Amino acid sequence: MTIAQFVAASNLPTLQEVPRACHLAFYHLRKEGSAEFTANDCAMWIESLSLPKPNTSRLADKLKLSADTMRGSKPGYFRLHHTYLQQMDAKYPQLSEKSQEVIDEGTILPPSLYNGTRPYIESLAHQINASYEQNIFDGCAVLIRRLEEILLIHVYEHLGSAAAIKDGSGNYKLLEGIVTDAVANPQIALSRNSKTMVETVRKLGNYSAHKIQYTCKREYIKEIIIDYRALVDELLHKADLIKN
User: Fold this and answer.
1) Spatial contact of 78 and 85, defined as CB atoms under 8 Å apart
2) What percent of the chain has pLDDT over 70?
3) Sign of CA dihedral 52, 56, 57, 61
4) Residue 81: left (phi > 0), alpha (psi -120 to 50), or beta?
5) Res 244: pLDDT
6) What is the Cα–Cα distance from 179 to 197, expressed in whole angstroms?
7) Which one of 32, 40, 48, 206 has the lowest number of neighbouring Cβ atoms within 10 Å?
8) Confidence at 243, pLDDT banded by 50, 70, 90
9) Which CATH fold topology does 3-96 show?
10) At what angle do helices 175-184 and 192-210 cross, to 10 degrees?
11) CA-CA distance, 40 to 59, in Å (whole number)?
12) What's the average model confidence in pLDDT over 38-53?
C-alpha cells in the first residue's frame, strides 16, 4: 500500500489533527520501522501531503494527552500505544505484509526490452535482474533458462509449429528437445549467435537446478549477459511479442 492509497483508504484529510498524526505514524512504522516519532515528524508528514501543517508545539501537547500514544525513549518522542497498533493492524493488515514488488536495476535485461510484452514475462525479467544483483546466481541461472524456454515455446506457437516440440501425448518436450529442434529448424531461423546461446543458457540453468556439487558464480552469468540479452530480443520479435 502506497502512501496515496493509505491516505484514500483512511480518509486522512477528514481526520482531526491528532488522529491524522497517529495514522501517519502508524504508516511509517509499518513501512519503514520507525517506532518513535516527534510532533515535528508528524507535521512534516502532514505537510508533505499538501495538508495544513500543524503547530508543532500544540501538536506535541495534544499527543501527550492522547490515549493512542506513549512517551518515547527520549524527551519529545512518542510511541503508538499497543492497543492502537492492534486496532490499526486489524484495519489495515496489508501494511504488515511485506511487499511482493521486485526491485531491480535492469542489469541483465533493461526495461526497454521487455516492457509491454506480457505480465509474466515482465515479472520474470525483474526476477532475473534482482537475483543477479543480489548475488543469487544459481537462482538467476535457473530463471534465465526458464525465460528462454517460455520464449521458444511462444515462437513455435506464433508460427503455428507447436506440434514440432510436443510428444505423443501432446505435452511440450523437455527444453533439450526444444533447443535441438530450434537450432535445426529453418522456420525458426535462429541467428548464428542465438543457436549457440540457447544451448549455453540451457546448460547453465540445468547445472544450477540439478548438479549437486555445482554452484553458479557471477562470472558465469556476466560473460553471457550481452549475448543473452540479444537472444531474448530475437525471441521476443520472432514470437511477435514486440515490434520495431
Assistant:
1) no
2) 97
3) positive
4) beta
5) 62
6) 10
7) 32
8) low
9) Arc Repressor Mutant, subunit A (1.10.10)
10) 170
11) 9
12) 95
C-alpha cell read off for 64 = 501527550
Residue type, 2: T
Sign of CA dihedral 155, 160, 161, 167: positive
Taking CA atoms, 54 is separated from 63, 104, 195, in Å, by: 12, 38, 65
The CATH number of the domain covering residues in 111-238: 1.20.120
- Residue 160, by phi and psi: left (phi above 0), alpha (psi -120 to 50) or beta? left
CB of 234 closer than 8 Å to CB of 226: no
Of 47, 69, 48, which Cα lies nearest the Cα of 56?
Answer: 47
* Residue 127, pLDDT above cutoff 90: yes
Q: Domain ranges in the chain?
A: 3-96, 111-238
pLDDT over 80 (residue 98) = no
- Cell numbers that stand for 33 in this block: 520501522
Q: Which cell is 22 given?
A: 497517529
pLDDT band at 34 (very low <50, low <70, confident <90, very high): confident
- Identical fold for domains 3-96 and 111-238, yes or no, is no
- Amino acid letter at 75? P
CA distance 44 to 9: 20
